[in-house]
Amino acid sequence: MTSHLILGGARSGKSRYAQTLAEAFDGDLIFIATGEAFDDEMAERIAHHRADRGPRWDTVEAPLALDEAIRARAAPGKLLLIDCLTLWVSNLMHAERDIVAATDELIAAMGDARGPVILVANEVGLGIVPDNALARRFRDEAGRVNQAVAAAANEVSFIAAGLPLRLK
Amino acid sequence: MTSHLILGGARSGKSRYAQTLAEAFDGDLIFIATGEAFDDEMAERIAHHRADRGPRWDTVEAPLALDEAIRARAAPGKLLLIDCLTLWVSNLMHAERDIVAATDELIAAMGDARGPVILVANEVGLGIVPDNALARRFRDEAGRVNQAVAAAANEVSFIAAGLPLRLK
Amino acid sequence: MTSHLILGGARSGKSRYAQTLAEAFDGDLIFIATGEAFDDEMAERIAHHRADRGPRWDTVEAPLALDEAIRARAAPGKLLLIDCLTLWVSNLMHAERDIVAATDELIAAMGDARGPVILVANEVGLGIVPDNALARRFRDEAGRVNQAVAAAANEVSFIAAGLPLRLK
């Protein structure tokens, strides 16, 4: 089935765009959240987003095993929206997982899915080189995951100020 | 009348692009500057930009009341160029104003304008998450303003290395 | 002959994209590296990139005199790939050279080249304003060089997640 990667910066409207796209689907809507509430600021954002989505959505949390979350739920008549890959990369780094292997498993699960999958990711590499090595590593890992998923996805869009540019 | 939002990064050529676009207009040109000279670096940039524009332009300063600046001057035969919305957001934050309300008023004034309005804004959300909370809040506010103005504008362009990509 | 500027963020796939484009050329391939190994992290990246390119490529190093490197090697049947302009700007700043003059000389050499030239550059202006003045100056210089080279190049592409958007 089709997969669509939605890339964008912070507050670019990428999640809203992805949701609106998803809600045009005639079937069940499943939101796969990768975010974990490490602190109050994050908890507030998560609660805000969940309230925003409204009752048509089922939400599941998958901070690490994104491939399993897809395999357990992808089916004809169900749309999966994964938001977002960049928090997932951050979670994998914290948990000291193999990011290349996890990305391969994600891509395999996307390929096997028999329903549509929309994935949201942050573009984080367009500023000045970060001062600290961990931020540089995160930027590199996030960029590599974006490239790999973009190569595998059927469609890729870049969102700026809520508006899409089609990359693929 | 038409409104055109010009988005871009620092030193992307967005102001130059907006000016060139404006100078094709057969009528009066009014530059609405939102920048305030808080320090020497800023004062130097402002003076440099003003000298760059040349004698065809009238310049007015509107660090906060952008809606009033538009309502006072928009007219057939006059083009307004507002540069830039992102400094305006920063000014509103410093002055502890309600940014959502100010944005609604800006958009209403744009809608009522009977002459063309060009607006310049920075895209600031494509780097690594900033370390400090104030920078994160600024990034969020600036992104939300960009989305709201982009939704209201007739045309939206993204500038990189002086060249435009049309978003809308 | 044709020149093509490839812009993108960190880990956007811009170097890979430029290389793939170059390898479609039927002739000699010359890689002009501007990077210098100031520290271990940098040395590792350079070695990794060189191994990645494989045996079809000749590599020369030109941290400062990019115009001379182009003039010495550009010829029919030879493609030059310069990676990247943004490190070159950083090198010029460290060496306290005149960046505007060096850019003019680069552009003149590009114009005189009788073989294709591909140039890679980082877009670094799409994040929050950096805290320190040196980073702000670097961002400004890099942005100005990108604009000048983009204006002179025959083709300009922006790469995100390995995929191109054509700017020119």
TrEMBL record, chains A, B, C:
It catalyses: adenosylcob(III)inamide + GTP = adenosylcob(III)inamide phosphate + GDP + H(+); adenosylcob(III)inamide + ATP = adenosylcob(III)inamide phosphate + ADP + H(+); adenosylcob(III)inamide phosphate + GTP + H(+) = adenosylcob(III)inamide-GDP + diphosphate. SUPFAM superfamilies: P-loop containing nucleoside triphosphate hydrolases (SSF52540). The active site is at H49 (gmp-histidine intermediate). It is an enzyme of class 2 (transferase). One of its GO terms (biological process) is cobalamin biosynthetic process. Its EC number is 2.7.1.156, 2.7.7.62. Transmembrane segments: none annotated. Pathway: Cofactor biosynthesis; adenosylcobalamin biosynthesis; adenosylcobalamin from cob(II)yrinate a,c-diamide: step 5/7; Cofactor biosynthesis; adenosylcobalamin biosynthesis; adenosylcobalamin from cob(II)yrinate a,c-diamide: step 6/7. GO terms for molecular function: adenosylcobinamide kinase activity; ATP binding; cobinamide phosphate guanylyltransferase activity; GTP binding. GTP binds at residues 8-15, 33-35, 50-53, 61, 83. The keyword ATP-binding applies. Signal peptide: none annotated. Coiled coil: none annotated. Keywords: ATP-binding, Cobalamin biosynthesis, GTP-binding, Kinase, Nucleotide-binding, Nucleotidyltransferase, Transferase. Belongs to the CobU/CobP family. NCBIfam families: PRK05800.1. Catalyzes ATP-dependent phosphorylation of adenosylcobinamide and addition of GMP to adenosylcobinamide phosphate. This is Bifunctional adenosylcobalamin biosynthesis protein. The lineage of its organism: Bacteria, Pseudomonadati, Pseudomonadota, Alphaproteobacteria, Sphingomonadales.
